[in-house]
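thought: fold this chain, then report.
action: predict
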Amino acid sequence: MLPRRALALTLPGLLAGLGKAARAASAVWVGHDIPPYLSRGVHGPDGYAFQLFRRVIKQAQVDAVLQIYPWARAWRMLQLGHAEGALVVTRSPERETQFRWLFPVGRFRFAVFTRPALGPVAGELSALKALRIGALRASVGRGLLESAGITQVVEGKDFVELLALLEHGIVDAVIGPEPVLRAMDSRPGSEGLRITSLSQVYDLYAVAGPTMSEERVRHIVAAYQHLVDSGVVAQLRKSHPEAAFSD
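observation:
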């Protein structure tokens, strides 16, 4: 039997260890700074995707924490199993079999941003081959440029970096989701840029990584459907028109 003093000293340590173990049990989700869908607010993550995420995991009774990283790092963490799920992932034919698609968090049209001095820009990627174009690393936009035969591509870790490259003349244009680029361009200190909408429209989703169990996937999908049926999702979309859902 431990002496009374030793027991008194040991119990706080055991309780602290249990607290750490409980925190460690929280499922890790990852996302990237992609306003207006998900951004770093004054009090932590914010945006339509995050607000929906909070409601879904609460309904599904899942203990999860969201961590925000540059997109390429978040992408690797998900693929390597270091994160269980991810928010704000563009759903494309090339990615369809890579993930289990849990619930939609937005919709967008791709756009190209240029400096006004460049003048009007064609709305087709095939007409942009002479330009140096900035694209988010490991993104669908980067893949679109490659499929269009555009070789003068400069990759960036986030859209803040890409727009800085544009403003300093290192690239001639930046491709990305139109709502995201508009949100970035409206920040204090940003110069007004020319916006050229493209024809490509995509949905944004929350996805399950390889480490998420099928049982948890079912719980999350069912939780989202419950929020749809109860009108919570419709109310949330109405308060976040920037998520750009058409329905």
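thought: worth noting. The radius of gyration is 21 Å.
final: tokens above.
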